[in-house]
Amino acid sequence: MRMLRSVSRGLWDYRSFILIILTPLLLLPLPLVIKTKEAECAFVLLLMAVYWMTEVIPLSMTAMLPAILFPAFGIMKSSNVAKEYFKDFHFLLVGVICLATSIEKWGLHRRVALRLVSMVGVNPA
Fold first, then answer.
1. How far is Cα 51 from Cα 112, in angstroms, rounded to an integer?
2. According to the per-residue pLDDT averaged within each range, which of 29-33, 46-50, 119-123 is highest?
3. 49: which residues sit within 8 A by CB, 6+ positions away?
4. Which of 51, 82, 111, 122 is the most exposed place for a label (fewest CB within 10 A)?
């Protein structure tokens, strides 16, 4: 019983590594047996779904898997994948996230809030 606990604890400690390696191996028969673009796309999507739900790798890296695997499998050309990833809206979103992160890091949001409270006061009327 004690040995079973130690083995299960050891496996639990390496669960991320096991999921990263085991998931593609378990899904690999899909593109190998059904040799179609749809099966290869399903492989990528299922791999992303498992990684996304378990968060074994960061979500940003999981979101980039199609950019790497679609051209590797020949599902889409890399130029077409890049067009989908680098649209104007995505650049705007990345810029806003960078701006929000820097505002939070330097405490600008607190300074603005304190300045407004000092100018207006704490009385709601």
1. 39
2. 46-50
3. none
4. 122
Distance CA 47, CA 54 (A): 11
Q: Classify burial at 10, counting beta carbons within 10 Å of its beta carbon; exposed 0-12, middle 13-18, buried 19 or more.
A: exposed
Residue type, 109: H
User: Are 70 and 44 within 8 A, CB to CB?
Assistant: yes
User: What is the SS3 assignment for 75?
Assistant: coil
Structure tokens at 96: 């806003």
116 is written with which tokens? Answer: 């407004």
pLDDT in tens, 61-109: 888 899 999 999 999 998 898 888 887 777 788 888 888 888 888 988 8
Dihedral angle sign, alpha carbons of residues 46, 52, 53, 54: positive
Query: Cβ of 66: how many Cβ atoms within 10 Å?
Result: 20
pLDDT at 122 exceeding the cut of 80: no
